Amino acid sequence: MALEIDRIVAVRGERVVFGPLSHCVAQGGAALLVGPNGSGKSTLLRILAGLGRIEAGAVRWMGEDTLADRAAHGARVAYVGHLDAVKPALTARENLGAGAEAGLAAMALDHLADEPVRFFSAGQKRRLALARLVCREAAIWLLDEPTLGLDTASVARFGDMLARHRAAGGVVLAATHLPLPLPDAMELRLG
Fold first, then answer.
1. What is the mean pLDDT of residues 58-66?
2. Which one, of 170, 174, 178, 169, lies nearest residue 151 by Cα?
């Protein structure tokens, strides 16, 4: 398995958020994290990104413990959280940096490449955040409610991005309350 979650336990304050939790995702695979609000979906994504702490268990990539080399793990992960993480004073192209053209094209933002992001709608900012996925060579995409604020055409474009990533052997884990264009995705229910 490419990504292995092995009996991990997450604690927030004095409360166990989830665990022990185990799940595996093969190369080219996808998992939908589903469950009610507060069940730990975002917490799990942050842990998998190396941004959260586990009380027990392990996360492995290709058999190697992801905590053993956090820098190497960080290089293989692209994380899109609830916030779009774009800088309003910069243009779309400046926000994306290297590989901007591919990202802008993937989310049909080419015509806004040189516009400051402060003039973007909420949906355009979300598209820009998702365009960043194309701009880097990350094997693991961790997505928290990725289609929030997107119109139907943008969700379809995003589905094309997901399909290309998986066809190249990439892994996708997405927390969602809405249907996502991820055919054949496994479901990991929390809560």
1. 96
2. 178
Q: HSE of 179 in the Cβ direction (CA atoms, 13 Å)?
A: 5
Question: What letter represents residue 96's amino acid?
Answer: L
Place of tokens 């094209």: 105
Provide the residue count of the chain: 191
Query: Helices in 14-121 by DSSP H: which ranges?
Result: 41-48, 70-76, 92-96, 100-106
In the chain, beta strands by DSSP E: 3-12, 15-25, 30-34, 56-61, 64-65, 77-80, 140-144, 171-175, 186-189
Cβ atoms of 35 and 191 closer than 8 Å: yes
pTM of the predicted model, to two decimals? 0.95
Tens digits of residue pLDDT in 31-57:
999 999 989 999 999 999 999 899 999
Question: In order of start, what are the domains of the chain with their CATH numbers?
Answer: 3-186 (3.40.50.300)
Among candidates 41, 2, 36, which has minimal Cα distance to 21? 41
